[in-house]
Hints:
Structural class: mainly alpha
CATH class of the largest domain: Mainly Alpha
Number of strands: 0
CATH architecture of the largest domain: Orthogonal Bundle
Strand content: under 5%
Order of helices and strands: HHHHHHHHHHHH
CATH topology of the largest domain: Tetracycline Repressor, domain 2
Distance between the termini: 13 Å
Oligomer: single chain
Number of helices: 12
Number of domains: 2
Helix content: over 70%
Amino acid sequence: MLKQQRAIRTRQTILTAAAKIFEERGYRAATITEILSAAGVTKGALYFHFSSKEELAQGILREQDQWLPIPDRASKIQQIVDTVLLHAYRLQHDPMVRAGVRLALDQQAGEVDRRGPFTHWGDIIRELLEKAKAQGELLPHVSASETADVLVASFAGIQAMSQVMSDYQDLLARVNALLRHLLPSAVLPSVLAALDITPAHADAIADELRVSPEHEAARGRMAPVS
């Protein structure tokens, strides 16, 4: 049991170090030697968990999605908003998420399958839009799959622009602008009027998840063994 826990801790240490290097250097410029130095592990330990730099990148892309979802909201459009705001908040505060986003948008990482995050986001948003349509929150003409694609693509562009312009410091303001422009084309005015899309709401969502019993239990399962 202790051996397994040490292996889990070592794997997480390697991923965290790789995320730091990938975020700082980009996929192509990052080297295994730099990742080994940042992680403080042997080459054998790294290759026990990851067979290549590409596999490390895939691990980071998967890791950023290993978080509890937003709790169910009565309004599925508010649930979509909360999901987007929470991701923006995490992007500002979590190096693993920043590294995953940089990898997903890195056109120099040609050998890495970068479709996963886009597929993951598209599935989440489309499912919520379908539920929103079923309970009468969307305008009659709206296609859930098409709207999900537009929202995911637009959000990816906002993230890339915010990274270049302010190192993500203005991301929540840009997300607020994005939602104010996109949602009226798909959502009933009565639903729009009740939404909270403010940047301050992102802090409230993060606080809500930090104090939820489910989140604390998940943190306990992932906590490193000293």
